[in-house]
Design a protein that fits this description.
Number of helices: 20
Radius of gyration: 25 Å
Largest sheet: 8 strands, mixed
Oligomer: single chain
Number of domains: 3
Distance between the termini: 43 Å
Shape: globular
Number of strands: 16
Bound molecules: phosphoenolpyruvate, magnesium ion
CATH architecture of the largest domain: Alpha-Beta Barrel
Helix content: 40-55%
CATH superfamily of the largest domain: Phosphoenolpyruvate-binding domains
CATH topology of the largest domain: TIM Barrel
């Protein structure tokens, strides 16, 4: 059987299918006689849950850093909350019912209470209280919490995966991610690209596929279940060829990014979290061209503090050991929604209150991030980049706030370095203003994902329009040339950090246009390097 969806990262995976269980356990109400013993069962399960959360905290700390790991500490504290514990024990005693039922009822009541509160922070706690209750129920039932039970690595099927769920997964056991929902830009998709494993979205599987053999074809965007032996053979051979290609590419690690006729270009990588730095280094990128800092906010249940952000940025700067690290300031709104920001629902979120527009309005949030960035600059080679720019006026406002932040740090005696300031060119307005903008900043980085969306007036999230969302459109090509020319004339260096930068059919074109930098997913670095190294710009243009 074959199910077609959409590929968000290519490659072939062959393995058993496992459906991700997110710990939604059906709970029965049962009468009990020994209330004291039942309360003890609850207390024991609660302690076990805290041990599990402690282990998850340690794991998350290593994989995604302190900011994102804190959620597990918060969960530990919630389990010890007096009102919560009292409610569970009261229900057991007064109704003479089993601990599972008492925990489920308490979880539902508390969650409903939080959800009804007129405070975004408290609203967000509703999901947490459900989460901890589920964990205790799972332990009481003798089951294991969501995740992968199999000893062997599996193709993981899920409705969708929340960042907190992917954090808990043992990544060495995932051959591929396949989800019913999710988009090309979902966290799972970005994680798959970073892990260099195929991933599919929009696959409407049935529950009875659990344990069956499957093939993920990340080139064609399909999942094959119970393949015939001839099909299986065919895919094994393709997978083998893929791996051979990867082995050959690995030989390009540490090689220079230079064309046959000697033109150098900087080849950097895009990341979303501190833990991605490992794959950047493994693939030998020359720096980080885009650190999507909003993932620190997305994976957190409250505004990350200056200290938390400083720790994350400093770690990346130190791990990159003097190589350039370009950190983009907060780019939320549109497809990246964060509950605790309390943003209103909008008719047209992609053109709405987002990114730099929020930062210039809520300058407290912006300043906290800038302070953390400048403080971290002392520990490496950081540059700062601002998203969604449409005017010179915005850049002047940003520079004013940057000056205030530096003055504050000076007054407090906190050390920092001078950093390059750049902007993303991802709106047609910014393209048309490149001549003026170049005078104000040190570099441009083209966000082709959004630039395509705004230029062609095609929502990048709408699967119905995928076939006409064309980043090769001549309008985009003309814009790219204009950005490079105006950038250079104004003394800026110019790069691309949108997905188009990794399109090897255009590598030669970008080199001829005069781009100074390309920043791509870590898993694409070596393929682009291969393309650069075989290009000869002295030969006739194709
Ligand atoms: C882009 O728009 O091309 C870009 C790199 O930013 P993001 O995909 O995070 O919007
Ligand atoms: Mg963008």
């Amino acid at each position: 059987m074959e199910i077609t969806g959409k590929s968000v990262f290519n490659g072939i995976a062959i393995g058993r299918l496992a459906i991700f269980k997110n710990g939604d356990n059906p709970v029965k109400r049962e009468k009990i006689t020994d209330c004291r013993a039942e309360i003890q069962r609850f207390m024991d399960a609660k302690e076990e849950a805290k041990i599990q959360l402690g282990a998850l905290y340690e794991k998350a700390l290593k994989e995604v850093g302190e900011v994102n790991a804190t959620i597990f500490e918060v969960h530990q504290m919630m389990l010890d909350d007096l009102d919560y514990v009292e409610s569970v024990t009261n229900i057991i005693q007064s109704q003479e019912v089993n601990a599972e039922y008492a925990v489920a009822t308490t979880g539902d009541n508390f969650s409903a209470m939080f959800a009804a509160m007129d405070d975004d922070y408290m609203k967000a706690r509703a999901a947490d209280v459900k989460d901890i209750s589920n964990r205790v129920i799972t332990i009481l039932q003798g089951n294991q919490m969501g995740g992968i039970q199999s000893e062997e690595p599996v193709i993981l099927l899920a409705n969708d995966l929340a960042p907190s769920e992917t954090v808990q997964l043992d990544k060495s056991k995932v051959l591929s991610f396949v989800t019913r929902h999710g988009s090309t830009n979902s966290h799972t998709a970005i994680l798959a690209r970073t892990m260099n494993i195929p991933a599919l979205i929009g696959i409407d599987y049935t529950e009875d596929v659990e344990g069956k053999l499957g093939i993920v074809d990340g080139y064609e965007g399909k999942l094959i279940i119970d393949p015939e032996s001839s099909v299986l053979e065919q895919y094994r051979a393709r997978k083998e060829a893929d791996e051979e290609k990867k082995r050959l590419l690995m030989e390009l690690r540490g090689k220079e990014d230079v064309t046959l006729d000697g033109k150098q270009i900087k080849l950097y990588a895009n990341i979303g979290s501190v833990s991605d730095v490992a794959t950047v280094l493994a693939n030998g990128a020359g720096g980080i061209g885009l650190f999507r800092s909003e993932f620190l906010y997305l994976e957190s249940s409250d505004y990350p503090t200056e200290e938390e952000q400083f720790t994350a940025y400093r770690k990346v700067a130190e791990m990159m050991a003097g190589k350039k690290v370009i950190i983009r300031t907060l780019d939320i709104g549109a497809d990246k929604q964060v509950d605790y920001f309390g943003l209103d629902k909008e008719e047209n979120p992609a053109m709405g209150y987002r990114a730099i527009r929020i930062c210039l309005d809520r300058t407290d949030i912006f300043k906290t991030q800038l302070r953390a960035l400048y403080r971290a600059s002392y520990y490496g080679n950081i540059a700062i980049m601002f998203p969604m720019i449409i005017s010179v006026d915005e850049v002047l406002k940003i520079k004013g706030i940057v000056a205030e932040v530096k003055k504050e740090l000076d007054a407090e005696g906190l050390p920092y370095r001078e950093v390059e300031l750049g902007i993303m060119i991802e709106t047609p307005a910014a393209v048309m203003m490149t001549e003026e903008l170049a005078k104000e900043v040190d570099f441009f980085s083209v966000g082709t994902n959004d630039l395509t969306q705004y230029t062609l007036a095609i929502d990048r999230q709408n699967p119905k329009l995928d076939n006409i969302y064309d980043s090769h459109h001549p309008a985009i090509m003309k814009m790219l040339q204009m950005i490079v020319d105006n950038g250079h004339a104004g003394g800026c260096w110019v790069g691309i950090c949108g997905e188009l930068g990794a399109d090897t059919t255009l590598t030669e074109t970008f080199l001829r246009m005069g781009f100074d930098e390309l920043s791509v997913s870590p898993s694409m670095v070596l393929s682009v390097r291969e393309e650069i190294r075989k290009t000869d710009l002295s030969s006739q243009e194709k």
